[in-house]
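Need residues for this backbone.
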């Protein structure tokens, strides 16, 4: 059984207010691939990302993580496999201290205390935040909160890492650290981003969304040399 790939098959999604955010979205990301999700504001990137671990379920179509279909009864299993870092870190951090936030996933998985301790150390070290361990997440800077958010997901040792706009509001050093963290993650990775440099450095493949539809799915270097596509995405005039 492999949890390491993601497959969307003809996924459509309409929000309860009737906004149709995804139309017939199909793609497969294989184990170990790092894939960018590109597209203008409102294209449907965050909506798609929320489908990868069942925070949203398709109106029609299917999402599979490995051979497990994403549906209500598989959610506990899916959420151990797919680590999702939200666009807004405030949605991710809710415990009184950083260490409790990072321990939350492993404790939920009922891991032994010693293993939880090891996971906290490992995850905080990976994001360079060991010194923030006893701090209150609400009293951290935006960049620090982003790093801690990533640690809360790494502590679960996910086999798929999904990040929504991970580099927004990060300074140069934090952004370089983020690129290093993502690059050293050896499993499957899906990243929604407007950060062209990050995408070019980290993702070999890019999927482009516009108005909820996939308009391109190609090697990243081909995407960024396609002048018509760049114009359509508003990246050049
Ligand atoms: N909770 C919601 N209820 C209703 N409509 C929503 C909701 N969230 C998003 N939408 C709509 O769904 C569409 C896709 O939004 P989404 O947030 O997925 O875009 P995005 O590509 O992530 O944009 P951005 O680059 O700004 O983050 C937009 O038309 C948006 O207005
Ligand atoms: Mg978004």
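Answer:
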């Amino acid at each position: 059984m492999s949890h390491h790939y993601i497959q969307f098959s003809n996924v459509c999604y309409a929000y309860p207010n009737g906004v149709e955010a995804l139309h017939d979205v199909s793609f497969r990301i294989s184990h170990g691939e790092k894939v960018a999700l590109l597209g203008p504001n409102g294209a449907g990137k965050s909506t798609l990302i929320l489908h990868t671990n069942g925070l949203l379920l398709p109106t029609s179509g299917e999402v599979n993580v490995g051979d497990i279909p994403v549906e209500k009864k598989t959610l506990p299993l899916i959420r151990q496999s797919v680590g999702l870092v939200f666009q807004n870190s405030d949605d991710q951090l809710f415990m009184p201290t950083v260490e409790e936030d990072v321990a939350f996933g492993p404790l939920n998985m009922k891991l032994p205390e010693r293993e939880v301790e090891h996971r906290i150390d490992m995850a905080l070290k990976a994001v360079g935040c060991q010194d923030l361990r006893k701090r209150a997440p609400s009293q951290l800077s935006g960049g620090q909160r982003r790093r801690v958010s990533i640690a809360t997901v790494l502590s679960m040792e996910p086999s798929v890492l999904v990040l929504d706009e991970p580099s927004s509001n990060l300074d140069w050093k934090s952004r370089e650290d983020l690129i290093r963290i993502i690059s050293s993650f050896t499993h499957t990775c899906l990243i929604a981003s407007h950060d062209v440099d990050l995408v070019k450095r980290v993702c070999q493949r890019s999927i482009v969304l516009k108005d909820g539809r996939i308009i391109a799915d190609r090697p990243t270097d081909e995407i960024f040399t396609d002048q018509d596509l760049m114009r359509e995405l508003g990246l050049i005039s």
